[in-house]
Amino acid sequence: MVSNISMHNASDGARIKVWPDAPSEMSADLQGGGGSGRVRNITYEDMTVDNVDYALQITQCYGQRSLTLCQQHPSKLTIDNVAFRRFKGKTSRKHQPLIASFACSSAEVCGRIYASDIDVVSPSGTRQAFCLNQDPRNLDVECTDNYKGYK
User: Fold this and answer.
1) pLDDT tens across 61-99, in order?
2) Cβ(109)–Cβ(75) below 8 Å
3) Is the pLDDT of residue 15 over 50?
4) Strand ranges (DSSP E) for 25-109?
5) For the chain: N or C, fewer Cβ within 10 A?
6) Domain covering 2-144 in this structure, CATH number
7) Are the beta carbons of 96 and 147 closer than 8 angstroms?
8) Cα–Cα separations (whole angstroms), residue 31 to 99, 121, 124
9) pTM score of the predicted model
10) DSSP bridge partners of 90
């Protein structure tokens, strides 16, 4: 449980990041293909963000530019039952129009992700989030599959 947090001038608000089961394309220092394990039953609530690049982020594609490669080699670390509740504020311009990213390498290893009562906007007023292998009905954002960071 993470609650009653304020983040100002930061790269990320609530974030969970893991590698897919493949070496990193972005840096020789990031060998990727992290070990097995699980993240489950996590709740982030009552968070205020101000000039934060992403208000919410889950990624199992850390260190990859290719979504295809990420999906071909799903993470060995599973993510299950994560809730984001009662977020408010404004992001930075860095990822605009996106305010969040929910990127799972496979629905089989990452699921039951929920975001409710999300009152976060980008500087241009958008509420978009990159969503990969997600059920958009569980996310109180505008899901898009367009993300400039992946090719």
Assistant:
1) 888 877 888 899 899 999 999 999 999 999 999 999 999
2) yes
3) yes
4) 37-52, 54-59, 77-91, 98-103
5) N
6) 2.160.20.10
7) no
8) 28, 34, 36
9) 0.90
10) 50, 121
